[in-house]
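TL;DR need structure tokens for one chain.
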Amino acid sequence: MNITIAGTGYVGLSNAVLFAQNHRVLALDVVPEKVALINQKRSPIADKEIETYLATKKLDLRATTDVAEAYQDADLVFVCTPTNYDVATHHFDTSSVEKVINDVLQLNTKATIVIKSTIPIGFTKSMRLKHDTDRIVFSPEFLREGKALYDNLHPSRIIVGDKSSRGEQVALLLKEGALEKDVAVLLTDFDEAEAVKLFANNYLALRVAYFNELDSYCVDQNLNAKEIIQGVSLDPRIGDYYNNPSFGYGGYCLPKDTKQLVANFEGIPQNIISAIVEANDTRKTFIVDRIASKPIKVVGGYRLIMKLGSDNFRDAAIVDVLERLKAKGLEVVIYEPQIKEEQYSGFKVVNDLSAFKEQCDTILVNRLENDELNDILDKVFTRDLYHRD
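>> reply
TL;DR here they are.
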């Protein structure tokens, strides 16, 4: 089959590699540098499995910036473009998804359009009505940054928002390239599939917020948070996973998906859904107040990545914490080897690690990924109890 992937972020590129094991795949992106890297069999994003598959596997994969070339001969088009949350409209900005749909329908009379981007509940149905077509389906993704291809090769479940033969075809494609063959497949209606994505991510955010609030209590009361979390997590109904405290949930999905679900609940009684968003802000405020209460002048931020194994700073909780500390009058410097400029988001960048350690009175670390700070642990402030995500 001819499959086109629109957008080559974590979702797009991991799906492109997955399908290219068995089909002809054309990846479309607006950034020429990303297209060039993919055509050189190099990954433009940090993901070990994507990097390995591009370098070593026989893949029928090519990238382009040409919209007409990408869409005109496609049997399926997977839409993997970003849908950022618009704070003014309290809604996902779906303009990039709508552009792909418009372009495909103009250039191709047969292709099934599979939306992988996260969208508001009701979006797929509205696009079908607007364009008077049944060629648009939705399939939520459940991928982790830095582990996107791994999660496609070992999917927890495959869900497609279409109960027709189109939905079956999409589900079979996703299952075909996976290493795991005993995968639960669920075909639902459009709205239900969209709701699954938002409610699943909100539950994960709720879990992060819960263990962060447990940790806040322990910090305030001088209790051993690790022992308490271990005791709580030994209950098999709770489980010993997704329970490592942090400065707050961040990254591309959870911040926007939690806010979108709050917006979808407008007019519907609820307490928990909006409390998840509020709890994340409260946790950051708690961290900021603890640091600001110390007799210090210079605060360092060690790495801005949202999580281990990722190269993404987007909505990282540590960035928000550092911005709030700067607003309180503290001097803030950061150590982030990925940033080559001398300034980032108003912060001074110091990428000489020794100089960074020397300048800082306190160093904030959301995730301890190595032993680079072992010689100055008395300066380090972290809530990373398990040294994992």
